[in-house]
Write a structure and sequence with these properties.
Blueprint: E1 2-4, H1 7-15, E2 23-25, E3 40-46, H2 54-59, E4 61-72, H3 93-97, E5 101-112, E6 115-125, H4 128-131
Parallel strand pairs: 1-2, 3-4
Antiparallel strand pairs: 4-6, 5-6
């Protein structure tokens, strides 16, 4: 499923032949979380930052599921938009947000083509059993 608040951004996906990607035109920032109760095996998020959604995003990933996230980071204001701090990740912020996930890859820094500053993370949500404490203590 591809989600965007801009119908035009979803139009190419809908027109693609043999595409099995469903699209939903949703404004994730307006009102309550529109995907409540839905679960996903993976989330791919690019060039998007709305901190109030992080809890909802984490919740909708299935245990064992994946997140691939890339967006602008502090320092990008020197190269173009976005410039406002509320749209720029703080140093190491994605690592903090996904601290309970298994981090497979993390990058933070400047890219040259086009010139921008980003953070990227690939992380796997721990299986439920890995998150729960062991039922029996270790025996020596």
């Amino acid at each position: 499923m591809a989600v965007d608040r801009n119908e035009a951004a979803l139009a190419d996906i809908e027109k693609a032949k043999n595409s099995n990607i469903k699209t939903r035109c949703l404004d994730l920032e307006a009102g309550s979380w529109p995907l409540s109760g839905e679960r996903f095996d993976a989330l791919v998020i690019t060039n998007y930052l709305w901190r109030p959604l992080w809890g909802d995003l984490i919740e909708c990933i299935e245990p064992g599921g994946w997140v691939l996230y890339e967006t602008f980071s502090a320092g990008n204001e020197q190269h173009g938009s976005p410039k406002r701090p509320e749209f720029l990740l703080k140093t190491g912020e994605l690592l903090s947000v996904f601290k309970d996930f298994r981090i497979v890859c993390y990058e933070e820094g400047q890219l040259d083509c086009p010139k921008r500053v980003v953070q990227r993370i690939v992380a796997q949500k721990c299986e439920i059993s890995a998150l729960e404490p062991s039922a029996s203590p270790l025996k020596s």
